[in-house]
Amino acid sequence: MFVGRERELASLNRLYLSDKFEFAVIYGRRRVGKTALINRFISDKKAIYFMGVESNAKQNLENLSKNIIEFETGIQAETAFASFQAALEYVFKLAEKGRLILAIDEYPYVARSSKSLASTLQLLIDKYKDRSKLMLILCGSSMSYIEDHVLAYKAPLYGRRTSQMKIMPFDFAETCRCVQNFTDENKALVYGMVGGTPQYLLQMDDRLSIEENIKNTFLNPASSLFEEPENLLKQEVREPALYNAIITAIANGASRMSEISTKVGEDTSVCATYLKNLMALGVVQKEAPYGEKASRKSIYSIDDNMFRFWYRFVPENHSMIGRGAADLAYKRIAPYLSDYMGKVFEEICKQYLWRLLLSGESPVQFKELGRWWGADPFTRSQTEIDIMGEQDKDTALFGECKWTNEKVDVGVLETLIRRSKIFHYSKIHLYLFSKNGFTKGCVEAADHMENVTLVQYKGLLEKMTE
């Protein structure tokens, strides 16, 4: 079942319908659905699809040749072109007769095996772009390679592309479309466990409980998810051990650079380089308090839900899992799931607020959303605000998110009101988000105020999936 990617497909179709030379670069992390997107796009079109392999130039040229010859003749042949230039020039000439797509998947594998490939493509694009109706697609999972060797200013192919798409994991609403048979609460839990990466969502069985899904995947040594984070790091970086140590440190509560450096036993300058690479991979994010661009208060957190869940719960139970004691491991994990979901629920609530803004239903026209933390001058203690978004110097919204089984009471609203007064906006709108609703006192207090919106998770889900 193919779900989502409507915008990406629409963009590709616009390029296709131009009927002139087009060059699209598609990249993104492994398992995110790039190949599925390409296959969906070319399914009803004249196209040559070629996937590079991690081998030498000879093997990749033979495979490309087979794909070209099979497209032309319908026959699988062992004949190979003499060079990549000969093979690609043949395709460019074929496209002079009519619209044709050439999709090269896992391009970095091919380019690494043939150092002159990028320059060859540059030469052919410049030679044929005005008379060939080829739509060239280069796709890759090595984001650093694509950014440095295809998109960067000094790359041979710089300036030739007509489109680029960084394929991101699904958001919560799109994820729900993939797991429709789960209960409402379990949809959020699934998103918290594996995020919006299609390949991971396919590992979730909506006929089973969340407990059974966790046992069958994260707590099962035979499952592909059991070693997935470590395998991904091995594919993307040269020194996975240190990267692994840094992610583990963050998962266990080290959020500031000094804390991470102490935990892993490396200088902050070394950690800074590794953290930058992890941010480029979409595994780690760096946050500053809302409105403070370059702040000493910046913290690091795990941005990918699958990595976050895995590093939070698997390593500390590794020996137990290896001995087949999944039931015992789950019993150790279960009490912490609600607390773990707090940050996930904050992200879901942010996505809900963005949806309101884009549909013209938001009372505050914010430019961005973020968290804020710092000193509360009223209590003289450290405090934080889950969600904050500013429209201008006079107007802002503030939000508090509670993923608990208890109903949110009026005290939570009063606390949010007090924290919002740390800032000096003349117009504010407050959002309270709750997993299980609100007490009568909280509802009555909100009703007496004109600037408070109470949102229960069930209603949020209905809005996001309508």
What does this structure look like?
- The chain is α/β, with parallel strands linked by helices.
- It has three domains: 161 residues, Rossmann fold (3-Layer(aba) Sandwich), CATH 3.40.50; 130 residues, Winged helix-like DNA-binding domain superfamily/Winged helix DNA-binding domain (Arc Repressor Mutant, subunit A, Orthogonal Bundle); 102 residues, 3-Layer(aba) Sandwich (Trna Endonuclease, Chain: A, domain 1), CATH 3.40.1350.10.
- It has 22 helices and twelve strands.
- The protein has a five-stranded parallel beta sheet. It has a five-stranded mixed beta sheet with strand order 8-9-10-11-12, sandwiched between helices.
- Helix 21 links the parallel strand 11 and strand 12.
- Helix 4 packs parallel to helix 6.
- The longest helix is centred in the last third of the chain and has 22 residues.
- The chain is globular.
Short description:
With 466 residues, the chain is of the alpha/beta class. Helix content is 47%, strand content 16%. The protein has 3 domains: 6-166, Rossmann fold; 211-340, Arc Repressor Mutant, subunit A; 363-464, Trna Endonuclease, Chain: A, domain 1 (3-Layer(aba) Sandwich).
Q: Whole-number average pLDDT?
A: 93
Supply the number of structural domains: 3
Q: Tell me what the CATH architecture of the largest domain is.
A: 3-Layer(aba) Sandwich
Strand order of the largest sheet: 2-3-4-1-5
Q: Which shape, going by the Cα principal axes?
A: globular
Secondary structure tally: strands: 12
Strand content: 15-25%
CATH class of the largest domain: Alpha Beta
State Rg: 25 Å
The CATH homologous superfamily of the largest domain is termed: P-loop containing nucleotide triphosphate hydrolases
CA-CA gap between termini: 20 Å
Uncertain stretches? none
Helix share bin: 40-55%
Q: What is the CATH fold-level name of the largest domain?
A: Rossmann fold
- Characterize the main sheet: 5 strands, parallel
What's the total helix number?
22
| Helix-strand category | alpha/beta
